[in-house]
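Trying the structure run again after the queue cleared.
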Amino acid sequence: MYAFNSSTPEPAGFDRPALWFVYQGHRLLVRAGVNGAQPGYEIPRLPHVQALLPAVDRVHYLGLLGEVPCYVGELPEGMVLPADFERFNLRRLFGQLEDDLLRVAGRAVHILDWDRNHQFCGRCGSPTTMTDDRARICPTCSLRSYPRISPAVIMAVTRGEEILLAHANRHPQGFYSVLAGFSEPGETLEETVVREVREEVGIEVRNIRYFGSQPWPFPDSLMIGFTCEHASGEISLVDSELDNAGWYRAGRFPGLTPPPEISIAGQLIRWFVEQQQP
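Done. Tokens:
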């Protein structure tokens, strides 16, 4: 695993190949390659991506992955790709790219979205310009817009030897996961956990404990994970986004597809399963 060091602005004197995270819309451009012993995909590593993809625009320097400089850029929709390139939604590349690359790819699309969405001032409508500290500033009213981070909680709710799993309407059939939701202004994260569980399935929880966190660039979330215990109430599907929810024992998830373990949702479910082992 390589350490990623975020940096802005771009240091002078780079003269070596860089990793280029190029997006077309929300799809990442990759080349066929090898992931361990399995076929997978690679991020292009080039001195200058414009030599291969001259239409790449909205370029940002991201930082160093180990000793390798990393950039993000955008390719206009409709542009034809070189023969050895493919493009995929980032979720589709879970397990196909190394975890270090996926993390930088998530950071890259987050910054690209922010830049695309803040070309004009949200206060007065004037065109904005880029600053050296990764912000867009309005030259008319001086409003600064930094990359947005939206805090959201995600929680494993347990009841003895059972975990609460639910299916959301937006997910493929059979895909079940733990509950999650965004924080509201003025809330603590623990209060968000209580409210979201109550709003989604109508039960109360207790013993809320921090588990971990994960940047989640879909489009700009920071997922803060918790574990908690059922306190009272029976499952009632209050939230219209859910169409099923239930209590499940470890090893008894018949017909259910859990989230990938690279996600914090998958890590919470794995934590629960490990807790049940003798």
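The longest helix spans residues 99-117. Worth checking whether this holds up in the mutant runs.
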